Amino acid sequence: MESAFQSGIASASLQVVLEKIADFAVRETSLILGVDDELRKLRRTLQKIRAILDNVENNPVSVLNNSSNEAWKMWLVDLEKLTYSADDLLNEIWLDISWVNADNPDDANKSNPVRNKLLSSFKLTMPHEISKIRKEMEDLSTEMDSLFLTKFSESGAHKIHDKTPLNNNFCATSSLVDEGFVFGREQDKVEIIQMLLMDEFSRGNVSVIPLVGIGGIGKTSLAQIVYNDDRVVNNFELRIWISVSINFDLIRITKSIVESLTGKKCKLSDLDPIQFKLQNLLCGRKFLLVLDDYWTEKYGDWDALCSPFRVGCRGSKVVVTTRSTLVSSILGTLPAFHLKVLNDEDCWELMKQRAFSNKGPEENKNLEEIGREIARKCKGLPLAAKCLGGILRFKSDAEEWDYILNSKMWEFPQDKNEIFSALILSYLFLPTNLRKCFAYCSIFPPNFEYEMDELVLLWVAEGFIQPRGQMRLEDIGSDCFSELICRSFFQFSHVNLHNQSIYKMHELIHCMAQLVSPNTCFRLEEDIPLWHPAFRNARHLSLSHESVQLILSKAFTCFRNLRTLITCTNDTSITQIPYELFLKLQFLRVLTLSRMDIDELPSSIDHLKHLRYLNLSENHIQKLPESISNLLALQTLKLKSCFEFVELPTNFGNLINLRHLDLDVKHQLNYMPSGFGNLVNLQTLFAFIVGRGRGCGIGELKNMRLLRGSICITNLENVLNAMEAKDANLCMKLDKVELEWNCYGDKIDQQEVLAGLQPHKNLKELTITRYSGLMFPSWVSDPVYKLTVIRLQGCLSCSILPSLGQLPLLKFLHIEDMSGLVHIDHHFCGFGSIKGFPS
């Protein structure tokens, strides 16, 4: 199983590189002789390796024995190292070509000295570098293939083209259950039975109730106790229990239903006569069907399976247990029932039942305190409580129980650890593109609070999110996060003070993330020898302990290949980052140094030419080094709550790939640097400070068509006339706009300026501060706007309020400090078909 885990993450790494090579072959390298040919050869080698990995993943038990398994692990480590090297090389090519195109945007196909020099360099060095990696991978492939073919021949495993996943892991369940072994599901049982007995819930003759939750949470046990309840037994003429599992076989499942109803083996082999027979058996009869462990997410599979069910009597029910809310949305006619984890007391009762079954009362008393602590570690997962209870049953002294209390779940012997056996299917059933995203989360602490947009930015920066048509990478990443929620890898926790949804990962799911990424992802929480050999292949690292200063200053001979460095600490002892640090970590793509009390960033930052994500939030930094303008790959720069920050670099406009600038210090900066308008790929810009100089005015916003979310445009007193205001062209799809003057000026001029700043019709929130005009422009109260919130504050000269009552969706109106407003007449409430503040 461990081999399947690690093969899965290696396969995901290969997929990322394969997609990049395909993209390069189309766009970038056709002009560079030799590079394109080498990339094609590398692509073929990678595809061959992926085929081997897929077969091992699908047949881990039959293909690998204990000795070959150890060799396999070593190869996977080497393979992942080479895959990262190939990815770094592709990024080098992209960066160098981007530099040429940035310097010569209109001269891409013409002769010029800079371009010719670069292409000459490519012809000499790049094909050789790619060939070197390819040959190493071919050697690795030959060795892996040799072992694989030997084991393949010995085991009689399925042919290499057989893509049926995990065909050795079907685990059937039955409807039989001892309810005395189920704890904490009394209320769940009541609610499910109520849904089964009430026919008025039904839209048609048959209703479908999905039971959804992560592996091991007790879906099957709940379905069993409901299935066997006397009220349910008496309510349905027919009851059928079927194990589906991940290998969806329509004929097998339909035959199983027929055999359950008749008590005889079904000898039919074609789907049509089997379904016809099932339809006759169900026609006009009230039935309950349980489909346990349903995985397939194809609409066609469900439509084909359920077509005979529709002839059942009204009130018939189908209960489906699944780990995926996507499955529940495909087949559910009633809202999905999401199982929650057990409380600690129920976990203890479940564990105690097994752990104390062969112990006397005195032993029980001595071990109970430790046992309750262990039960708390189960984090409410019944399967964990059962497995731990089974292990503890054979351990009689407190020292052994203490060892388990203080050990990691995955340190239990694999043959005794059923916990991950139940969860492994969830991981191996993930699409390849989601595996890296999930494994990456192992660098965060257990119980970490995940905010979707932030995690997606990290995934994009790491290269885990690949382009799909014209979709934004961020939208593709959001879909990936939503899919992981659907598959129960994340669970909703709460909404934070910023109205953002916060998610958490169950501790055992987090343990699984660590299990699938043992060689590349590390989280340092305590002093570990920094020369530890495990760190040689480290690519993603978070620092959570207090000796960050030591790590940053001395440790990075061990971490030269790092792509990610995230500090998860509130250590305030660091005021300066060593100059040498960035010379050593030249492959970094993600760097987070937030809340570190830093007041300056070294100019060596420009050595991080692969860097895509830089978070310096909540520090004492006043300005950034000019050299940061050389980071052409940079996509995200966060300077949130850097209240002493006063100046962006002069050549900041060079960062043409910047997509997100989290800059909320609108009262510290006096203006944006000249050329800021070059950042046409910006999607997030929380503050824009209007300046007076050339290239610093509000017109710099006009080509930023991708902006979304919210923006505060301040220092509007520097906008001189309506033409300049219209030049900003605020038609980007923003949800929230703040328009702020810092001093009062000419009333007529400001009226014209505000009229010219008309935003997009989809705007939801509008704030206008210290506006000197006598009245507001007509667009403020135009009913076509979807405004839900309006704030008017400090508009001292305004004597007339707009007809805000005719805004159909307005829910919140805040008016403050408007001393020029003497009275409000009936026009304020609006006129025409919409008026009187309908929302």
UniProtKB/TrEMBL annotation:
PROSITE patterns: LRR (PS51450). SUPFAM superfamilies: L domain-like, P-loop containing nucleoside triphosphate hydrolases. It holds the Pfam family WHD_DRP. Residues 698-818 form the R13L1/DRL21-like LRR repeat region domain. SMART domains: LRR_TYP. Belongs to the disease resistance NB-LRR family. The lineage of its organism: Eukaryota, Viridiplantae, Streptophyta, Embryophyta, Tracheophyta. Residues 443-512 form the Disease resistance protein winged helix domain. Residues 187-359 form the NB-ARC domain. This is Uncharacterized protein. Residues 14-97 form the Disease resistance N-terminal domain. One of its GO terms (biological process) is response to other organism. One of its GO terms (molecular function) is ATP binding. The keyword Repeat applies. Keywords: ATP-binding, Leucine-rich repeat, Nucleotide-binding, Plant defense, Repeat.
